[in-house]
Amino acid sequence: MAKVLCVLYDDPTDGYPTSYARDDLPPIGHYPGGQTAPTPEATDFTPGHLLGSVSGELGLRHFLERAGHTLVVTSDKDGDGSVFDRELPDADVVISQPFWPAYLTADRIATARNLKLAITAGIGSDHVDLDAAIAHGVTVAEVTYSNSISVAEHVVMMTLSLVRNYLPAHQVVLDGGWNIADCVTRSYDLEGMHVGTVAAGRIGLAVLRRLAPFDVKLHYTDRHRLPREVEEELGLTFHPTTADMVPHCDVVTINAPLHPDTEGLFGDELLATMKRGAYLINTARARIADRDAIDRALRDGRLAGYAGDVWYPQPAPADHPWRTMPHHGMTPHISGSSLSAQARYAAGTREILESWLTGRPIREEYLIVDGGALAGAGAHSYSVTT
Ligand code: NDP
Description:
This protein is of the alpha/beta class. It has 14 helices and 13 strands. The radius of gyration is 21 Å and the shape is globular. The model has no long low-confidence stretch (mean pLDDT about 95). The site of NADPH dihydro-nicotinamide-adenine-dinucleotide phosphate has 34 residues, from helix 5, helix 8 and helix 14. Its EC number is 1.17.1.9.
């Protein structure tokens, strides 16, 4: 019987919800490109309910306990003596979400003698030391595509929010004011601007598709080029590198994984080549941008705005400079954890567990590391140093 250790974010401050703003979710059977949404044999939750917090338990408890397995759910993941550290040594499976990552470092993997499977309930497994997972024969899987469109929608929202100066204008209303000039002196139209994405994978391409109707000029860079028909359909300009692309852009959105090639990419040097007053949206991973260089670029006007939902570490400390830097539109890490996304990644987590617990192969699309090497989707999107 397996012990499953699941690290989830805390419940709402006023308690686990007893009612919701809406009654249902639109059914999503397939993702762009044809991949099917998760296909577990069954689920024990109501789509649209809060599943990603501790009391939601990703809807897994009944399923696991009925089959004799043990489920431990906690939000206590950091610091000496955390529940996560205490429960890890005999856990067979660890489940964590990027929004509240249980960092599976090399040291922790070394202490987790039974660990065989690390599931990311969502997308982005960089909180797992993939080199260590490979060395210890741990399988890593994530619920590919489950929240890609959720994030793309967040990118579009943040792009418009920054360019149109939405958040400061909303604050004027909250403060009881009506000074139009205060609201509009930093407000522009997106129309006609040059928008570029660093990476055009599932999220990056979805962002391009969603922004195309705004009559912008679209740019991208990626390790592989998109099919010619997609470039023509969207009027895309391809640039071989990020450094080639960013000087042309009014808005840059980062949609690449964090790995050794992208860590620290947006530092002083690259930011200095961007147009004065450019906007940078990063919903990928915080460490792709240099924390203090972003703060400096906003203060000296190189960037007109920065937004995103990814921080390092998570949760961000109260004195993190991105909380107080000017002209930012940050949220906590929420873009991929809408109630809509939760229903999909909870179902995908269940699908992965059903496969693994019965000795069936996990969907190739979900695999990041398997059999001591990068595998499946991971072989395409991730890099390791080994
Ligand atoms: P995909 O794997 O579909 O796409 C990633 C793309 O990045 C691929 O096209 C890949 O290229 C490209 N790429 C990798 N390295 C580089 C590089 N150095 N320069 C340019 N392009 C590069 O991933 P997704 O679109 O689904 O997700 C992207 C990232 O977004 C995730 O890794 C994750 O960190 C983050 N994310 C954030 C979420 C949130 O809640 N904020 C939720 C989900 C994901 P190639 O195909 O050529 O290898």
